[in-house]
Structures are given as structure tokens and as C-alpha cells.
Amino acid sequence: METQRLTDLEQLLLLSVVQAGDDAHAGAVQEVLAERGERSAALGSIYVTLTRLEERGMVTSTMGDPTPERGGKAKRLYRVTQDGLLALHRSRRILDRMWDGVPAPDTATS
Questions:
Q1: Are 79 and 17 in contact (CB under 8 A)?
Q2: Is 74 left (phi over 0), alpha (psi -120 to 50) or beta?
Q3: How far apart (Å, rounded) are the C-alpha atoms in residues 48 and 54?
Q4: 3-class SS of residue 108
Q5: Which residues, in sequence order, are CB contacts of 36 under 8 Å at separation 6+?
Q6: What does pTM read for this prediction?
Q7: pLDDT tens digits, one per residue of 15-73
Q8: In Å, how far are 54, 58, 80, 92 from 3, measured between CA atoms?
Q9: One-character DSSP codes across 39-99
Q10: What residue ranges define each of the domains in the chain, with the CATH number in brackets?
């Protein structure tokens, strides 16, 4: 099976899920994306993209335990699958090849 291609946002969200660890709910993913990825995204966009990634088999989700902070509602927790990791590594290899030979900007004139 050919590994599926990822959009920029899909890559960043998969990486954010990995970085968020076992508590990878949409809010935590949003925080990691902002802090490490220097990118903001609305929770609605994050949910839509994570749902699409789940449909493609790149993440799985489960319902966590209900929490008092959420009025007894449970959070959906996400985890990257092996297919998701394969897609991430493929994307990185492609980007590395594309970057090969790109000169650094001249910082003396900046």
C-alpha cells in the first residue's frame, strides 16, 4: 500500500498529537501547534482535520474519562497510528530532498 500524502496542516496536527502524548485531546493539540508549530488553528479546524485523519487510518481516538472541569463530559483522545507515522516520515524525506541544495539566505543584508 502506498503511503498517503499529507497536507501541511495534517502534518502539523499529527506531529502535535505525538508531542501531546497520551493526553492528546484537541485542546492539547491546539496548544502544541501554537507553541511548537508557531501556528494557530481554530478547534473546529482541528476536529475536522483529526476526523479526516481518523477516516484515513492515521489516527485513532477513544473517549477519555469524564472530568469535572468539563461538567462531567469526556474528552476525545487521539493517538497516531503506524500508518500516520509512516506518512509523517515519508513527508519528511520528501521535504529533506526538496531542501537539498537550497542556499541559506544572506544574513549580512538583513
A1: yes
A2: beta
A3: 10
A4: helix
A5: 15, 16, 19
A6: 0.86
A7: 999 999 987 999 999 999 999 999 999 999 999 999 999 999 999 999 988 776 666 78
A8: 15, 10, 14, 13
A9: ----HHHHHHHHHHHHHTTSEEEEEEEE-GGGTTPEEEEEEE-HHHHHHHHHHHHHHHHHH
A10: 8-99 (1.10.10.10)
